[in-house]
Design brief:
about 10% helix; mainly beta; seven-stranded mixed β-barrel; about 250 residues; 13 strands; Acetoacetate decarboxylase-like
Length: about 250
């Protein structure tokens, strides 16, 4: 009987494990900008059955919209085969499924190089993407970084970010999160990430090593989110972002 119970347990464990499978891996350089955008415009992008879930703690406290500017250094599929790296900006909203404790980031829009379109979440549009990054370290060990990101979508949406900041003490952390699709909210991916990050500005913690920042956004879909009343809540430089992506289901 004990042997039979053991066999049943192993079969059940194998069944549960089979529901989660590796989709791919990538290593990126990223810049995260968290904002407090016009609430009415943000709510229009959240599908039925979901609600806004702004963080109440941490450097991004109070944000309701995120811009993730990314440049992949390397990318592989589930079998470890190389995939052409992509560049782009993903627009996300912190959400919760109503009446549950299911939370995560919901990707609702994005501008990406053609091979990243429409993306796993089905919301990215093709764009011409330019990235310029300069770093200078002086004799005292101070490091100044300048970044310029330009995204010009074929649908008329554009986003340009220019930032200058001093590098601070970085932190390394391993995290796990769920990211949902604004187009298909029942679809999500699991991210297991090992990242090095530097919070260069945070209204919540009082950190500010940003000496210059300019953010310009235009276009039919993005303009409503950037009507001039938006405020930057935090800026995070992520010079090393190593991610495993998992899918669930049969």
């Amino acid at each position: 009987m004990r042997a039979l119970i053991g066999i049943v347990f192993l079969l059940l464990a194998g069944s549960v494990g089979a529901q989660e499978r590796l989709s791919g891996t990538n290593v990126d350089v990223r810049l995260g900008i968290a904002l407090k955008a016009p609430e009415a415009a943000v709510l229009k992008l959240i599908p039925d059955g979901w609600e806004m879930n702004s963080p109440t703690t941490g450097p991004g406290q109070g944000m309701n919209l995120s811009l993730t500017l990314l440049e992949q250094v390397s990318s592989q599929d589930a079998q470890g085969n190389a995939i052409d790296p992509i560049r782009g900006v993903a627009v996300g909203i912190p959400v919760r499924r109503k009446g549950t404790d299911v939370t995560g980031n919901m990707v609702v829009a994005g501008l990406f190089t053609p091979k990243g379109v429409p993306g796993a979440y089905g919301v990215y549009v093709p764009a011409n993407v330019e990235v310029e990054r300069k770093q200078r370290s002086d004799g005292d060990g101070k490091t100044l970084i300048e970044e310029r990101w330009i995204f010009k979508g074929v649908d008329g949406d554009t986003l340009e970010a220019q930032i200058q900041y001093a590098r601070g003490a970085t932190t390394r952390a391993k995290t796990e999160s769920k990211v949902f699709s604004g187009a298909r909210p029942d679809f999500y991916r699991i991210y297991r990430v090992d990242a090095v990050s530097d919070v260069a500005r945070s209204a919540a913690t009082g950190v500010d090593r940003v000496s210059a920042i300019a953010l310009k956004v235009s276009g039919k879909k993005l303009a409503a989110l950037f009507d001039g009343t938006e405020k930057i809540v935090s800026i995070t430089s992520i010079p090393s972002y190593s991610r495993q992506v998992f899918l669930t289901g049969p």
